[in-house]
Amino acid sequence: MKTEVNMLTKDLPIGIFDSGLGGLTVMQEIIKLLPNENLIYFGDSAHLPYGNKSQKNIIRYSLANAKFLQKQKVKVIVVACNSASAYALDALKKELDLPVIGVIAPGFFSLMQATKNFKVAVLGTRATINSNIYQKLILQKHPKASFYPIACPLFVPLVEEGLHKHHLSSLHIHEYLQPLKDKNIDAVLLACTHYPLLKELIQNYLGKKVLVIDPAIATAHALKELLEEQKLLTSKKSSSYKFFVTDDAKKFKILGQNFLGMEIKNVKEIEPL
Ligand code: DGL
Asked: Does residue 192 have an active-site annotation?
């Protein structure tokens, strides 16, 4: 069912979804840039991780998440997950009459702005890397670019376990990123919502000459532009945040603070969709 466009009003909340906790890094940037907007966050923790799932299931889950948010009467949907943005954005845009934005295009633009020598790396889940979406975008823009995609599937469980500052994370960073050391890259995109928590360790490992980019910042700016364009910026002067998860609200509340940078209240656990 398509939503009636005339139901969109600027004071409705913004809907954000992810496979679990990671999208909170995107929500954090949205809060910084758009502090008066009401936000509804949906974390599909029962189906986490999306990054190891097939395209078919990522699309299925993403459509269900978006429809749930639509029922909460949101004015726009932010797909705050790289794996879901890589595989499901087109299907979401087709199915929904709401504006939908993902994290891939903003990430790609920031990477292209950051690089001077067009030797770049993209770090992501298996799903995101296997989708080849960044490769296509980058090589379309710059056919001579040197592009190094690296799937880092163990980063997500490390961050989920709160080990993002632990030496185990440094070991895995060395294991995955060592091949980049002699490639003269000047920019790396953290194309997974969990990886910004490892930014400091990744930056230290790759050195100061490499710009390490978190697409959450550009995504928040893209969202603001979209709301401005569509005259959907809120007129309110205060905000509220609501959270829905499909598994373990307690874990979400505790670990989520690392991702969001603030206390998480108002979490409701619902049945998986
Ligand atoms: N949110 C996912 C992403 O950005 C990472 C976690 C997962 O695999 O579900 O790709």
From this structure: yes
Cα separation, 197 vs 3, in Å, equals 36
Mean pLDDT of 68-73: 97
Domain range list for the chain: 7-102+217-269, 105-215
C-alpha distance from residue 152 to each of 14, 31, 98, 128, 139 (Å): 30, 28, 33, 10, 22
Q: Is CATH 3.40.50.1860 the right assignment for the domain spanning 105-215?
A: yes
Which pLDDT band holds residue 6 (cuts at 50, 70, 90)?
A: very low
Q: pLDDT by residue (tens digit) across 195-213?
A: 999 999 999 999 999 999 9
Pocket test for ligand 1, best of 194, 246, 259 (most atoms within 8 A of CB): 194
* Marked catalytic residue, from 21, 30, 191, 192: 192
- pTM, 2 dp: 0.95
Task: Name the pLDDT band for 9 (thresholds 50, 70, 90).
Answer: confident
Catalytic option among 8, 34, 80, 81: 81
Distance CA 125, CA 193 (A): 10
Please indicate whether residue 47, judged by its CB atom, sits closer than 6 Å to ligand 1.
no
Give the pair of three-digit tokens for residue 24: 């909170």
Measuring from atom 1 of ligand 1, which residue has the nearest CA?
A: 81
What is the CATH number that goes with domain 7-102+217-269? 3.40.50.1860
